[in-house]
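Hello, quick one for you while I still have it in my head. Could you read through the record and tell me how the tokens relate to the sequence? No rush at all, and the record is pasted right below.
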Amino acid sequence: MSKNLLDLLEVRLLLDQINPMATPDEVLQVYDQVLNALAAMKALKASAEERMIEWIDCNGAIETSELRYYVGDSSRTKPRSLQLVADAIMEASGGDIESFAQYLSSNPFKVGPCRTLPQFDELFETTVTRNLKTGKPKRVLKTADKKWLDRREPRISRKRS
């Protein structure tokens, strides 16, 4: 068994140390080890992908009933100028804002800066993701970088019943 897999199993066992009686340091130490295991797995995946590329270069694409693995160039397409793209779309749509909106991606607006708009609440909606089984709001671990927080007292979340 590989060392990475053993590390993963050890980390899985460490999760039992996260309980209501654990100290914050103990909880953070286990979480740190989980993050390290995740980084190790990402490195392992990258190594496997490099080897698959070498194999495919020598032997050709791999096909299963559902997927085809092949080698291609990584690419990314982005506008050279947002202003020029917007102008071209407005011209092509004849100035119709509904037609213009169809050229936009799912969320082209940065929510943070848009919060300064007086009509923010009318323009944006926030929906809570729900657990499919229970229908209750899905609870997730969130983090906040203290350098971005203002000087207010932090809100401490209490256990929900």
